[in-house]
Every structure is written in C-alpha cells, then in structure tokens.
Amino acid sequence: VLENQDLQDSIKPQKVEFHSLNFNTTLHWQPGWAREARDVLYFVQYKVYGQSTWQNKDECWGISSRVCDLTHEISDIQEPYYSRVRAALAGVYSNWSLSCRFTPWRETVIGPPMVTVVHSNKSITVKLQAPRSPYKRKRGSKIPMTNYYDLLYQVFIINNFLDVQHRILVYEGKEKVIKIQDLRPGVSYCIVAKMYMPMLDHSSAYSSRQCTML
C-alpha cells in the first residue's frame, strides 16, 4: 500500500492553471516528479463554481499531453469555473489537482489588433481590426472582442528618423480607419497599435510593426 501511496504522490499533476487569449482557453499542468512521467496518462474535469458535479472532458480523458482545450466548455464568460486533473500510471491513480478559480470575462488576455497600413506621399491610412473570439455568429463569422468589452484602439507612430523606441500616441478611439497626415516624404515610419480597456485599465500587447516609406 505504501508503494502505491508513493506512486500516487509522485505522479500527481502540479501547477494546474488556465491560460486564455481572446477567450481561447486551455488548461495547462506540470507532471509530478515520477521518473516514468512520459508513460503517465491524465484525466481532466471541469465545473462551474458552486455546482456539485464535475463534468469529464472527453477529449482530455486518458491523454499523455499536458494541455487541454476547454474553450467551448467554459463559454459562459461571466461564470467562474474550476478544473482539475488527475494522473494514472500502471493502474494507480493520483489524487485530483485543482486549478484556481477562473472567470473568462475577467481573466482572458486580450490580444492586439490587426494593423494594415496604406501610404500616400504625405499621409498614412491605418486600418484596424479587433481580435476575434472563438465564438461564432449564426452566419458563421467569429465575434470580435469589441462585442464583449468597451475597447479602444490606440495607434502609435514610430519615426525611424528618431529614436526607434520612441512611440508617439497618435490616436485613441473606436474608429477602424484613421488617417495620419502631414508626414515627411522620404522618411520611414512604423505603426503599432494595441487594444485598451478603460474599465479594467488593461492594455493588450503591441501589434506587429507595420512600416512604410513615404
């Protein structure tokens, strides 16, 4: 019995945590300290906080991977959820390892917008597209994150003539197409943008840099 107890403890999953970007949510965990870790199989369950019964996640039942996609299981974004993982090796099962409570709306990370840049000789037109959630409208298109939050676009210009790290905020608001005027011909400019959520005072990462020479 003691050997089984040792094995149970040695394979028990560690650090069970949710990772979420634009409501694409996966559960991650670390293996226990068993030397045979690569032969261990994992079993994932989830539930809404306050419910008594756990649901099995069928696609993550007896898997060797240490990541499980729960995007569509926890799609009620205002609800707090828990998940838990147990491990099995050679017919011995570990105890369950519990995640922290996770509320998608509060805790998902919002990604940067997509940025397209079109230039004329003295101006740059910037087209912005909000990141999309995994959830679909009836017609099949993915719902943008701006449907779930009051989000603003922040657009920054980097004048490569100056110090590269010097980003100047040129626009903040909800317009998807903006024009930056009175720029100098022959100068290379780069544009980056991010999403900003005033209510929670959160910002996304910067978008990838779009550069153009006027």
TrEMBL record:
InterPro entries, per database record: FN3_dom, FN3_sf, Ig-like_fold, Interferon/interleukin_rcp_dom, Type-II_Cytokine-TF_Rcpt
Location(s), subcellular: Secreted
Annotated Fibronectin type-III domain residues: 6-96
GO terms of molecular function: cytokine receptor activity
One GO cellular component term: plasma membrane
Keyword Secreted recorded: yes
Secreted keyword on record: yes
SUPFAM superfamilies: Fibronectin type III
Keyword field: Disulfide bond, Receptor, Repeat, Secreted, Signal
One of the Pfam families matching this protein, by short name: Tissue_fac
Residues of the Interferon/interleukin receptor domain: 108-212
Cited function: Receptor for IL22. Binds to IL22, prevents interaction with the functional IL-22R complex and blocks the activity of IL22 (in vitro). May play an important role as an IL22 antagonist in the regulation of inflammatory responses.
Similarity comment: Belongs to the type II cytokine receptor family.
Name of this chain's protein: Interleukin-22 receptor subunit alpha-2
